[in-house]
From TrEMBL, chain A:
Protein name: NADH-quinone oxidoreductase subunit J
Domain of life: Bacteria
Function: NDH-1 shuttles electrons from NADH, via FMN and iron-sulfur (Fe-S) centers, to quinones in the respiratory chain. Couples the redox reaction to proton translocation (for every two electrons transferred, four hydrogen ions are translocated across the cytoplasmic membrane), and thus conserves the redox energy in a proton gradient.
Coiled coil: none
UniProt source species: Methylovorus glucosotrophus (strain SIP3-4)
Transmembrane segments: 6-24, 31-49, 55-77, 89-110, 144-167
Organism classification: Bacteria, Pseudomonadati, Pseudomonadota, Betaproteobacteria, Nitrosomonadales
Amino acid sequence: MNFNDYVFYVLAAILLFAGLRVITSRNPVHAALHLVLAFFTAAGIWLLLEAEFLAIALVLVYVGAVMVLFLFVVMMLDINLDKLREGFWEALPIALPVGILMTLEMVMILGSKHFGVDRVAAPTPHPAGYSNTAELGRQLYTDYLLPFELASVVLLVAIVAAIALTLRDRKDSKFIDPAEQVKVKRADRIRMVSMPADVEIPAAAETEGKDKA
Amino acid sequence: MIAFMQNLLGPAWPVVWTLVKIIAIVAPIMGAVAYLTLAERKVIGFMQVRMGPNRVGYFGLLQPIADGLKLLMKEIIIPSAANKTLFLLGPVLAIAPALAAWAVVPFDVDMILADIDAGLLYILAMTSVAVYGVIIAGWASNSKYAFLGSLRSAAQIVSYEIAMGFALVGVLMCAGSLNLGKIVVAQAGGFWQWYWLPLFPLFIVYFISAVAETNRAPFDVAEGESEIVAGFHVEYSGMAFAVFFLAEYANMILVCMLAAIMFLGGWQPLLDVAPFNMIPGFLWLIIKVALLLFFFLWFRATFPRYRYDQIMRLGWKVFIPITLVWIIVVGGLMQTPLAYLFH
């Protein structure tokens, strides 16, 4: 075993532990944080496979954006764990066979027959000047241009749809139009009132003097 | 000397040598952070016609050290209802990415710790991870103020990251590389070759987003004293608080460094003629970063705090459209004879 193998086994152990904690953790925030750890270690394993662009993109997109929003929601939820566990034993007879079936299917597809070391060998080390990022970009914008553009259009439609579905135009909500605010001139807000100096001031001073006396 | 050490340490040499380089980067950053706090107090002091700290040492020069010692000696109080592990993990997660991002920053020609091809992406990834420190600290404190502060901060950082990312897309379109060193080399030849000129709207958007990303005034609603006391770090004391402070200032220096590298030509001299190009490139970078940092302090002394909804409006409805339009403009002009402007 060389150094890379040791790194791989350490990262894989952390990844498995983190994945396990995601489903066993009692606190949803801890579960989400372990998912973050899992993404991070997965990125590390991808780095070992010389897929540095994908690894950094995983950290940037999933750790940096998706999980932040996820955590955001989980933190604000008031989750009662006992209530969540209530139906556990009733659901078990159905859930267990379904779970076992799914595991078997995954083993059949992802087993060593299709993904073994002899099938998917470790990538041959690239020369020093090789840029994974540039190569990926070239592939995406030449050979896979149409699927890439289609995927981006689908995503755009999803974004627009998500906003359109949740946007409720409430009539009674108060909001401020900054453009209107900026347009305000002094004359709209201030009324100048001319108040000439009063002539009765000496008289008032006189009465004051009398009181004192 | 280096050959001798290589023989002495054998296979452990690369590890030791990298550690030495890391210390050579991190130690000056910590020094810079300490003196940036002093500079901030002095500059804002002079802007508000007062003296600023001037008691500890000549001209107040020992003030940061006194502050650091004081914070070191103080007790770290952990609230009884807090989540202890996460409470202590928060400051660590705040400072680690702030320092890790420096690995790909080029200080001069070939003066860089890790010269990776996806340097720009790595920086974006690291700065986006930094938000976890704030979120975890706010949640683990088990305090309403801290939680509100962390939610505000998270939403703000996620929003401004998009505008910041798009501003950087313009830079990489011009430079044709994600490698920070290559981006600087692409800006060679005087200040009109630097990218601030062809990418002026992106430069402005980047710089303002950088202020927002680091939670600095006027975007510091995450710790708005008048509303939520001190935001996400309200429950922290002693060194745990100081670590947040270090992370904030290290991030400030980092974003200024990135602005200098990507829009102000990095280590390139102002003009590539005799008196200017005799100054070492490293010094030019420091001068540019110091200038940008001065703007951070100037903003803080000048602008009142933004209202929260206006921060969101500025980020989503003003900056993102500006960057998108300018990227399209740049992409279009690059296909015309005017393309030389963008190289």
